[in-house]
Amino acid sequence: MKRRNFLRAAAAACAGTAAIATPAIATGQRTLRLVTAWPKNFPGPGVGAERFAKRVTEATDGQLDIKVYAAGELVGAFECLDAVGTGAADMYHAAEYYWQGKSQAFNFFTTVPFGLTAAEFNAWIYHGGGQALWDELSAKFNVKAMPCANTGVQLGGWFTREINTLEDLKGLKMRMPGLGGETFRRLGVNIVALPGGDIFPALQNGTIDATEWIGPWNDLAFGFYRVAKNYYIPGIHEPGASLALGVNLQVWNELTQAQRAIIQSAAMAEDSFTFADITMHSGPALQTLTGEHGVQVRRFSEEILKALGAVAGEVLKEAAASDELTARVYQSYIAARRALRPWTEAADEDYLAARRLDFPYE
What we know:
Layout: H1 2-26, E1 30-36, H2 45-59, E2 64-69, H3 80-86, E3 91-94, H4 118-127, H5 130-139, E4 143-150, E5 157-159, E6 173-175, H6 178-185, E7 190-192, H7 199-205, E8 210-211, H8 216-222, E9 230-233, E10 242-248, H9 249-254, H10 257-292, E11 296-299, H11 302-320, H12 324-355
Parallel strand pairs: 1-2, 1-3, 6-7, 6-8, 9-11
Antiparallel strand pairs: 3-10, 4-10, 5-8, 5-9
Helix pairs in contact: 2-10, 4-5, 5-12, 6-11, 8-10, 11-12
């Protein structure tokens, strides 16, 4: 209730304070409030949002001073788009699929099951027409959005019991957002919507039986291993989750061209930096989970993966049919997947297969 009151009061105040704020804008000095979907000091995305803010402040010599708020400090994780769109906040750092209730198209700008990898997603955004479609979508909600982090491929999730057959999925209570969640739901899983900070208590008290989050580094920090010991791969639901920076469209248009360029450059830098940060820490974290905490890494069966893939295709097509813009986003995304897949398989997959061969090297 407190957060909703904040949104209403702040939105109403925006028009009345516009004249007061003008001199600050004219002098080139401005404080911007960035709300996030992450707990305070959260490794990877949370720290990345702070680092992005620092980059912009330093690059503008303090002309843009960005104040970062963790999830719940001003608004909840799922309220960031509304807060920024109405002017209650100036920026957000979050996952676009949190707004799928407003448009199914948002899913494609985070990740979809069996979709693009991190490298493929950026290829689509920057060179395949993805950003133009994203601009069209986000403008409907008074926001300018862009990539500002990527987790890379995630793991399949934590389960309190083994999942060996499709029957084992039925009746399972699981936290999984986006179209990945809808895919699992159609195989009998009961999907529960939870922000990051609420996952561990729900797993601990039995509200959920399973959860996905990000990967070994972040999952270790959340302590899921204390409740669930079965860690499944692969993470077909999120093959390359992009996290977004969203800026209120009026704020964006009021910035100078140089300031907008700095924000875009800082977001691109943070996109790469967070991806590298998560990648670097995930290997050692996985070893800690298995070596010190008794976690068992298990693979989904081929039966389960094929069923998930077939259902995922249906889910994406149904999402595309929800409206004309989502249909165009889907068509562009699938065209990019089709065009990029041969190169990814010929380059990355074949190289990794060669690297797995048994020969003396280290």
